[in-house]
């Protein structure tokens, strides 16, 4: 038998044959071509005789550096497990070359390997992967004809799986032998050198995970992902070096060594092409900021290409709100400074012409609905500057109005016609019935801890309902208002069941709902204070709220425990209880201390999204103690214990655009208290407070607010002094707490009154300081009056009901350490016995 040598490397074979053919062609000119060609075939060891071994091996090494592509991998010495923040790379591993791109396998086969039938496909070298799995990826099967092209396709298919570091195919007689070297399994992944970005965030970004197959291609992709994470936070000097540690049983540890480098800041933001708005005005519009020393708590001055893209959209919307409908951002370019430590950002604009609203019309293609009935929902008027937000608001208002009329399937489309000569935009809102679509199902994803039912009960849509975009939008708002999630997305996609069905998808990203906080501060009324609280707003993922709080101040100490179940008895009823104990020093105001210990149960429910009612019962033991020897006789009369058994009710109507920092809308609340069923105090009290917010400009808000209350004894009992209203302090700036209340002039003790009325006008405005400082100015005027206490009179009692008035200015600073409020107020109308104060300061922080 004639046996030629084994030929390894199809690429080498192809090159050898190619060179041979070229040389043979030249030698043919002298008659030696055929002789050389025959010698070439013999030289590479290919025998045309049946039964001999012909190898066509294709080798592409994509495995771990140092691992040989052989039928049996060379054993490696075990490496100690990787420890966080400890060296994880051995001296050998540290010098491992960086991952390189995977090379494509050679696609040529020695011709003599073709022909004949494959008796069987044998697989060798596999450890974890079954032989049948390897065969399943191949094009060639048992009984197929040996074919070099199909062998090449089989090789590519096996490499494409990413499971193998090396693959070789050989013909042995009528058998096809496939030799594989498996890619290792990742044992663990570690990050070293990352201080600015947590491990959890990096792990969430990368594609590789423990127990997955290691490939160099995926490592390179993950390196790019890590670099992107750092570049989004303004760190462009970051470097990432992946290190691989070989373990036994074909496993590896993967470590990403990160050199974060310094942050890259924005040194300057320039605008080109802006004629109507100054650079400083436009810098306030965008989210990116120039580097300043006081922005140490903000990342807005670090360069982020994603933020710059967002800035383009902010500029576009700003110009569209101000009438520039042709506006466009020509370019936004960031140039790295020569020292490579900062960026210069240049944004080029094309403002275009400014337009006004022209004719605003409504066309309705739905019977029984007139255009005139929808005209009141048009936001904006003819002659006003064009505002794209008002067009969107009009579309939404008309959609909601049609939904209220029972038309769940409507399509409101604004038809815009621009008149460039007159510089006006005529808009016709065309309304027609849309396709009838129903909710097939609601899918909820992303909630690891929160139960599905907590999210589902906030949905305004259920399976089988007519689909309504307004209800879907309201559902998103209600889920976001829970405060349990960083991100809430509510979308709909066509259902696979039927064309008239849609699937509502709710995707959430949970955030921490537990709070452990401590605070320090100082106020004019309580003095220096310290408070601590622990709270869980989503107890056991059920949406329940549990809080324990403690406050210790110079003049007040309190502890309270509260629990709220937002869906009592699986109904939208917020039920809960409160336990509390408070001690307060009122020596300066009324020459006594007061302590209250008690508990309450409450039940609240919403009539709609704006109207809410709350019912409450409380039982409180009150102790008046430490009464000064020179206190008023009326104060001494209430010394000792009393028990208050009280039923309370309140109803609130809230149309503010924000409950935390409102700038538009109004709020009204009416309350009533009844005491007398049990205990030894008997009275009826009614209160009302309201506020209206007027946006004067983008950052200027005028607030008109007021409150009033009245209390009266029942069952032949007078109202105890501690239940009276007091005027001064927070409800009438320029006066001390209780400083404008009726008082015993002989002892200077405030007694309070049985009725009160106050009003306030306050305007908040920016001071021209950088927005990041969080400083807002305010100017205000307060007015109030108060009635006399029950059954107290005499020449030494100052109880004039004349109006008091004050005016002043102040600052509100939302500092990194907590909110700070400063008021400077001057009393304008007052009585001789009133106590005034010019300066009032409040500061608090939580950490």
Concise summary:
Pfam families: Omp85 (PF01103), POTRA (PF07244). By secondary structure, the protein is an alpha+beta fold. It has five domains: 10-72 and 107-180, membrane protein fhac (Ubiquitin-like (UB roll)), CATH 3.10.20.310; 265-350, membrane protein fhac (Ubiquitin-like (UB roll)); 356-433, Roll (Ubiquitin-like (UB roll)), CATH 3.10.20.310; 438-510, Ubiquitin-like (UB roll), CATH 3.10.20; 514-846, Beta Barrel (Porin), CATH 2.40.160.
Write up this protein.
Helix 1 packs antiparallel against helix 2. Helix content is 17%, strand content 40%. The protein has 847 residues and is of the alpha+beta class. It contains 14 helices and 35 strands.
Overall pLDDT level: 82
Shape: globular
Number of domains: 5
DSSP strand count:
35
- CATH class group of the largest domain: Mainly Beta
Radius of gyration: 40 Å
Give the N-to-C terminal Cα separation.
87 Å
- Lateral strand order in the biggest sheet: 17-18-19-20-21-22-23-24-25-26-27-30-31-33-34-35
Count of helical regions: 14
Portion in helices: 10-25%
CATH topology of the largest domain: Porin
The CATH homologous superfamily of the largest domain is named membrane protein fhac: a member of the omp85/tpsb transporter family
Structural class: alpha+beta
Sheet having the most strands = 16 strands, antiparallel, barrel
Q: Which percent band covers the strand fraction?
A: 35-45%
Architecture of the largest domain, CATH level 2? Beta Barrel
| Contiguous runs where pLDDT drops below 50 for at least 5 residues | 1-112
